[in-house]
Amino acid sequence: MLLNIYLISHPIIKLLSESFISKGINEAQNNYKYKYISLFLFYEMMRKHLQIKIIYIKRISYVQIFYMLESNKEYYIITNLLNTYNVIGEIKILMPNIKILHINNQTQSLSQELNDIKYSINKMKRIIILENILYQSSIIELITCLIKEHKIYIENIHIVCIACYNQILDQLGKKYPQLNIYTTQII
């Protein structure tokens, strides 16, 4: 397995993720913790890949500074909104230019939703696959579709999940060894 797995080990993330994965916590508290864990993971992942342009506007008596995202890059989050609805709103507030694509585990909806990616030409695309717990092998079909049909480079695909199972990591490592995965725990 040659995957690029980033185990985020910040103390707050460790505390939140341990209580999220353990049983016996009510659903409302779980959703609340999931939201913050996902935001921390998203922050850690974007910290390396987000590039900002600084624009200086000279005024008469001062210089005004603006920060903007690079215009030659597009960011997409691919997720099942039924599982990740509570964190997507927060991410959309932080990055209004990010595009959210809802997929479920059916292959038909996958190709329909991913057509948005195909029609944005001349831009570098960064794909973030957001999952609670990575355990389904359908993620391999999704990555295969992104690479073969939509011509996305594997280096531009990132998986963000709270936890992931070792079996799915083995499968991903055999097929896509350069894939980037950000997680708090391997089960």
TrEMBL record:
Record keywords, A-Z: Plastid
- Is Plastid there in the keyword field? yes
Using the record's annotation, list all stretches that form the Phosphoribosyltransferase domain.
Answer: 10-186
Transmembrane segments annotated in the record for this chain? none
Task: Write down the superkingdom of origin.
Answer: Eukaryota
The yes or no answer to whether the keyword Coiled coil is present is no
UniProt-listed InterPro entries: PRTase-like, PRTase_dom
Name-wise, this protein is: Phosphoribosyltransferase domain-containing protein
- Where does this protein come from, organism-wise? Membranoptera tenuis
SUPFAM superfamilies in the cross-refs: PRTase-like
